[in-house]
């Protein structure tokens, strides 16, 4: 099995072959994103692979940077500004800021320019009736405008189309007649759910992803075939569940946020192996730290997520919070002369100053190189040569009265504190006590920086899993293959509603079975989103029993709603009627998972460091000293289960470095994981 995680800085490739894990790391190429994927695949060999699992931030980065194709948007006349208005929510910090504008609004960087958003004469009522028939002559005229504007795709979202898609289906036919075979998404296929704005934004994202990923997928499939791959290519979705590439390209909005989600699933799988089921997962890459929560062995999943503030996508997604704090975060001097770290990043081009690619601003990577945590000869497995002199020059050039030692020390402390604040905020947001949770440190920079947050966040311990620099890619070898169908239908949950709900679930399960091979091992999981009558927002993932939905089943569902509602809010209102909103079926297929090899036991030969090194700027710094510490350096490949490492210490491996601080102790676990605790 092979998996690849395409990140903003590096493309990580892992292979599981004959019980052994092989890895490759290649610099991401924004011009030809599939190139590094094929390069990494060729390095590991794909001829005998049965599956190739793929996750990427390619589409996400395209949205964030607005490197997007030109598309048109068709909606019911009078609603063309729905994409500009969003949900009319402001972030907390901007509530009183009269200058604030949403990032995707017409006054800033819209996904679809207003002149490309066209109103169509038609109207479907809330119960599915036709108030105004579709005016095909007017629709053709609007499509002709889009044709002359040179759009390369069209998104269609008509009011109440989720209950009656007839007008959207006909509009799609007219798009084919006027514009030819361009990518076209309709909301009744993409997201047949209530609430118009979220459905519209999801449909726009789906159209953009079709254009971005269709050509990419074709080139990737051809390149893999040329390398001798004949297995199944799967794409990970936003919950890091796997979908065959053909099915993924039918609704590609689901894969826009797949990269960060894979790490959460990998943490849940590995945590189960070592008996740690409550986890704070922190993936520190070159640009950001992605933080998520696993409770009782299950990632926290949302029914939607935001790409930017209020830019909503209706897709099941692992709940992940990102902050601009990574190995490439730029160190700068603030307006009051203070040291700032991030959120701006040097990325992979030009990268940190020590890369020697033209970067002149110091970054967190330069900071760790100056301290001595990073060995310049072994960075990224020796694939990238680092120049400490360039890091030193970048820090000396900072316009500050601080000494060089203070600049480096404060830059390190700010980087660590930024990450600690992010982890603590995610714990509080999810209502968990970090003292009861283990912090999993992965990503290339995670083990280097996150053990230092132990004294601030007070987690139970920090766990550095095997192959932390490629752990998100390994997460793709821990994921299930899952197909999902959902429908919105507002109805009070009474015995009279049972036949309609039973028909809905029967239709969705039949739809999912049609795409599966006979004999495939599959388990169906039903759930629904519902609310108390009169509420605006739903309680998601209320369990629904299997089998025929009858009056007894309705009673069970209502009881499940009240139980779920009480678990989430602490309140229970059994006297209030319950209204179902969205009904959902997930088909989970039997999927092989990665099996981590166990670490060897140490024999008679005692544990010895491969060398010692000097860490600067971490101890007491003053006019006469640089705060030096002596640290033992170990090669992770030579560690055995049960080994104990006293800090300060450094553990080197091909694609990551672990820093065990003074006052900390690391123990090597069953699978070679490093468990770091305070002494």
How would you describe this protein?
The model has no long low-confidence stretch (mean pLDDT 91). Strands 13, 14, 15, 20, 23, 24, 33, 36 and 37 form a 9-stranded mixed β-sheet that branches. This protein is an alpha+beta fold and 679 residues long. Helices cover 30% and strands 27% of the residues. The two termini are 40 Å apart. Helix 10 (364-371) packs across helix 12 (404-429). Strand 14 (289-295) and strand 15 form a beta hairpin.
Write the layout of secondary structure elements.
Elements: E1 2-6, E2 10-17, E3 20-27, H1 34-44, E4 51-56, H2 58-65, E5 72-76, H3 82-85, E6 117-120, E7 123-124, E8 130-132, H4 136-149, E9 154-157, H5 166-179, E10 184-186, H6 187-190, H7 196-226, E11 232-236, E12 242-244, H8 245-250, H9 258-274, E13 279-284, E14 289-295, E15 298-299, E16 301-302, E17 305-308, E18 311-313, E19 317-318, E20 320-323, E21 329-333, E22 339-345, H10 364-371, H11 388-396, H12 404-429, E23 438-442, H13 446-449, H14 454-457, E24 461-464, H15 471-475, E25 481-492, H16 498-514, E26 522-532, E27 539-543, H17 551-569, E28 578-589, E29 611-615, E30 621-622, E31 625-626, E32 629-635, E33 644-646, E34 649-653, E35 656-660, E36 664-668, E37 674-678
Parallel strand pairs: 1-4, 4-11, 5-6, 5-9, 9-10, 13-23, 23-24, 32-34
Antiparallel strand pairs: 1-2, 2-3, 7-8, 11-12, 13-14, 14-15, 14-20, 16-19, 17-18, 21-22, 24-37, 25-28, 26-27, 26-28, 29-32, 30-31, 33-36, 34-35, 36-37
